[in-house]
Amino acid sequence: MGKYRILCFANQKGGVGKTTSAVNVAACLARAGKKVLLVDADPQGNATSGIGVSKRELESTVYDVLIGQKTVAETVVETSAKNLFLLPSGIDLVGAELELADEARREYRLKDALEQVREQYDYIIIDCPPALGLVTINTLVAADGVIIPLLCEYYSLEGLTQLNATIGQIRKRYNAHLELLGVLLNMYDGRLNLTVSVLEEIKKFFPGKVFRTPIPRSVRMSEAPSHGLSIVDYEPHGKGAAAYAAVTRELMTRCE
Ligand code: ATP
Ligand code: MG
Predict the structure, then answer these.
(1) What does pTM read for this prediction?
(2) CA torsion, points 169, 147, 38, 220, in degrees to nearest 10?
(3) Residue 15 CB less than 6 A away from ligand 1
(4) In this structure, what are the phi and psi dihedrals at residue 188, rounded to the nearest 5 degrees?
(5) Which of 116, 196, 228, 248 has the most CB atoms within 10 Å of its CB?
């Protein structure tokens, strides 16, 4: 296996497609025959419900893992997709930020926990919350690579200086080999001049990092989570599924 096995989708800006991308890339990797663990690290639990796991029926979540109450193996659940497993999340994760504040190795909780299962999966894909707090720091410390989803809009580049600074700090203090593996453009509409000019700006800001295939805006993509399905299972022959399949192929070459 390649050197990039644990990947997180991060951007402190809300609603840019972190969850959509984490779920769908994880599903595409699983379809390609890889054994995948999707880690929901957001108290909103969107990746959990989006892949069809009912939050009410969970005995434990990533919160219990972070505070050391449960192991990953005890908390992982199956999904309806073959090869795709989930470390679920729920609202209790909100408490982790405060509860871990004074704990030893508080930045390494997720890394230490995933270390025990790392060899059992080809890929571990982490969905981050829209914040740069302790939970996101845990994901960046645990990860080999980070992928930044961005909307194709004027304000997209705002906040990226802060995200870059955070990634730099993580490298310096906790995880020297953290790599920026790619920037994923979401809600792409090539008919809009604004989209095209924003794309140029983003390519200048992240030379060589932008994935060749952007993710188009698609109503089907926003419907899929309410059915508990990835886009590749909900609309396998649509443009959204095709785009995520292409991005996943590109990602696999970057990783392996
Ligand atoms: P948060 O910061 O709240 O966790 P996020 O970055 O994870 O948000 P998503 O939840 O993936 O973002 O996407 C935000 C909303 O936009 C969701 O309702 C999602 O279904 C929708 N969405 C994302 N990408 C697309 C797309 N390409 N086409 C249509 N709808 C999309
Ligand atoms: Mg999300």
Answers:
(1) 0.97
(2) 140
(3) yes
(4) -75, 135
(5) 248
* 85: phi then psi, degrees, rounded to nearest 5: -115, 160
**For ligand 2, a single-atom ion, which residues have Cβ within 5 Å?**
18-19, 46
**C-alpha 99 – ligand 2 centre gap (Å):** 22
12, two tokens: 């402190």
Residues paired with 78 in a beta bridge: 85
Do 4 and 169 touch, CB atoms closer than 8 A? no
* Residue-by-residue pLDDT tens, the chain, 256 positions: 557 899 999 999 999 999 999 999 999 999 999 999 999 999 999 999 999 999 999 999 999 999 999 999 999 999 999 999 999 999 999 999 999 999 999 999 999 999 999 999 999 999 999 999 999 999 999 999 999 999 988 888 888 888 999 999 999 999 999 999 999 999 998 888 878 888 888 999 999 999 999 999 999 999 999 999 999 999 999 999 999 999 999 999 999 8
